[in-house]
């Protein structure tokens, strides 16, 4: 018979000291807490995934404020704002659940909301980003540029979702949409199974790859090429390229699956050449 003391010793052997707190934290309880607060399924998934990643990296939620501030300093813009929000939520629950005595992010300065501005890649950047990628990384980039898919949307793509004419997308807020298939994506589809997830997870607890894994790999790829930003720049490029090809704004809005043209305009970049060409259209 294994005594309680022996179990404790075995636990310490199996998990380094920094991991013991991770083992004691049940993220299923955090998921239930988020659900009780009325958050969407997608937001709940993002926050639980974020919490799991922080626990794996830190080993414990019991972190001093300066450690968290130093970690956040590596991020900026919307990413920093999102991570700050995730941390506030995580520690609000952790305090209630008794995992920490007080929240280390309680006095963390709020991140100002970044002014929305279009950030499409240039033609040269697009060529380098896609041309130097391979495997799933290349597929993620192509789905972002040729269909405007967000990370969490492309992560769940299945063979059944795409045919030669249309792509079924499980979109933001659980909204389903049908998009036209670009020939480049249909060619890509021939490299993936016709049934099941294109990008299955390597972790037993989930069926498809996490959006944070996609985001991190795309960001690292960008950084290696000297390009700033995240995978969302592919969606900006999709929107801007459609507009520059002469597609009507209302059609672009529909393809972006936005509810208003104002939102779509945040993705549309206009350069000096376009401004000069517009002025030349005026009658003398």
Question: Strands, helices and their partners?
Answer:
Layout: H1 4-14, H2 17-24, H3 27-36, H4 41-58, H5 65-72, H6 77-97, H7 123-131, H8 135-147, H9 151-154, E1 166-170, E2 176-180, H10 183-189, H11 211-224, H12 232-244, H13 249-256, H14 261-265, H15 272-280
Helix pairs in contact: 3-4, 8-12, 12-13
Note the main attributes of this structure.
globular, 2 domains, hpI Integrase, Chain A, 284 residues, two-stranded antiparallel sheet, mainly alpha
What does this structure look like?
The model is unreliable at 1-23 (pLDDT under 50). Strands 1-2 form a two-stranded antiparallel sheet. With 284 residues, it is mainly α. Strand 1 (166-170) and strand 2 form a beta hairpin. The chain starts with a helix and ends with a helix. The protein is built from 15 helices and two strands. It has two domains: 4-97, no CATH class; 123-279, Orthogonal Bundle (hpI Integrase, Chain A), CATH 1.10.443.10. Helix 8 packs across helix 12 (232-244) and helix 12 (232-244) runs antiparallel to helix 13.
Assign the CATH class of the largest domain: Mainly Alpha
Corresponding CATH superfamily of the largest domain: Intergrase catalytic core
Strand and helix order: HHHHHHHHHEEHHHHHH
**Which architecture of the largest domain per CATH?**
Orthogonal Bundle
The average pLDDT score comes to: 86
Q: Could you give a short account of the major beta sheet? A: 2 strands, antiparallel
- The general outline is globular
What Rg is obtained from the alpha carbons, in whole angstroms? 22 Å
Query: What's the domain count?
Result: 2
Quaternary structure annotation = single chain
C-alpha termini separation: 96 Å
β-strand amount: under 5%
